[in-house]
Amino acid sequence: MAFLSENWFIDVVIAILMFVVTQWTWEYLSRTDIPRIRNLPEVPRYMPFFGHLHALGDDHATFCEKWWRKSGDSVFQIRLGNTRAVVVNSFADCKKMLVSNSQALIDRPTLYTFHGVISSTKGFTIGSSPWDDSCRNKRKAASTTLSKAMMKNYYPMFDLESYCILRDLHRDSIYGREVSVRPYIQRYALNTTLTLCYGIRMDEVYDELLREILEVGSAISLLRSASENYQDYVPILRYIPNNKKTARSKELRGRRDAYLDLLLNKVREMIKNGTDKPCISAAILKDEETRLTGVEVGSICLSLVSGGFETIPGTLVSCIGSLSTPAGQIFQERAYEDIMRHHSDLKEAWSNDFEKETVPYLNAIVKEAGRYYTVSNMSLPRKTVTDVHWNGAIIPAKTMILINAQAGNHDIDYFGPDAGTFNPERWLDASPGGTFSEKSSSSHGLSHLSFGAGSRSCPGATIATKLIYSALFRLLSLYRIEASETDPPNTDYVDYNAIKSALVAIPRDFKIRLVPREERLAGEVLRVGEERTRDFYKE
Ligand code: HEM
């Protein structure tokens, strides 16, 4: 004590020095690509190297949604390891950020594992491409293929693929047997994009190639997730010997390259034999007015195949789950009545009218499924190309922007106090006579955030909506769907997802029973459909 008091000045200097050195070391190890943004709240308590990664856990969207509700700040900054990101939560702020700053947010960030390892051979998908001339060309080509004007060309495909769901469900659910509907919907989504890209489809639900594409695609999408792959944000982890993430990425890259080459070779073979079907890759291989390179064509096909194979099943399967519950029985009955109101001859409607999206109640179910089950809960990350002025803060160029679509889609200030409930009727006006019409406000503008918005919004939104509508039309017009008592669906908008860290939600498995509304009609329409399948293979 005596020593301390005699040298008190030196003690104080040492203490200050130690404090400064500790502070400096802490700050040094917590550095981010973009320095702290002034006048924008930051989530407190970050760790050196990792930032908020641990606090965010597996489910970033739900952590941020809760933080927004707790702090009252809808827009705040977080640290994903060495990367600073701005998270946007409320519906109004997500919309303003994406639409009012459309050009400033046109870029996408690149990640070490996905861009550096997995995509090193076949190029980036559109959704992961930074904005440049090549990305512009690819996006333009994909948007043309997926545009509203092109949809009528795909009617035979919608017809065949939605028929096949019913054909196989009819067979497998006979005698009240319970079925898990996801595999049928996965084939539906994948066959659609495979047909568009390669003119190829698979008839079996458990086809080997189909399952390989789905398995590899899901595993790769998991490696893009921040919570699954710390090495993208904590560079030091890349140098750990026997790095399992990099090894796994290389293995998946090899498997993906193999099936992409196989598909393209099949198209080459069909062109040689004169049996090819109109599709993107055949058009390019025959060099029909294209300025795209081979890698760009591969990237477009990959983007379309990977764009729909998880998002459509995630949305449609979860929607079927909600409809199968006791509360959902009312929605099913009203949808059926609305179908009958608009299509007095169901057989006729089945053969040529189901794609037209004329049944308001079905449109409302499709919209509500998209909103309630926000399958891409954090959307796809964006990156600013110029400064963005936000309520007194300047978000600099090259900052990662994360749109919390899950939070915005369940924003009670925008969707009302029942935002956390699955209710298709929020999109409808009911007349005293019991008929429904679409709310005029819901038919234009941004209904929900699940397809993103602005410069990099989802070009697949139109075809995805058509596919979900067509499948529901056919399913609900022939059957009543009932949830299994032993394996019921989980319909919580967060917990329905079995893998919280996945980029696209994977619904927990559940089973349903299908009760035919009119046995004879089901038999008749399925027989007609069978003839059309044979025609497809004959052509
Ligand atoms: C329910 C189905 C779908 C959902 C929920 C969905 C969701 C999304 C989201 C959230 C984005 C990012 C938007 C943004 O940054 O603002 C996106 C981008 C994209 N989607 Fe979809 N999508 C679906 C279906 C599809 C389908 C069927 C395709 C193709 C056939 C597709 C192709 C793409 C592509 C190519 C992009 C990248 C666009 C770009 O970066 O410029 N999507 N999608």
TrEMBL record:
The protein's matches in Gene3D superfamilies, at most eight in alphabetical order, are given as:
Cytochrome P450
Question: Membrane-spanning residues where?
Answer: 7-26
Q: Which residues fall in a coiled-coil region?
A: none
Q: Which domain of life is it from?
A: Eukaryota
Q: Which InterPro entries match?
A: Cyt_P450, Cyt_P450_CS, Cyt_P450_E_grp-I, Cyt_P450_sf, Cytochrome_P450_fung
Keyword Kinase included in the entry's annotation: no
Q: Which family does it belong to?
A: Belongs to the cytochrome P450 family.
User: What's the protein name?
Assistant: Cytochrome P450
| Organism field | Clohesyomyces aquaticus
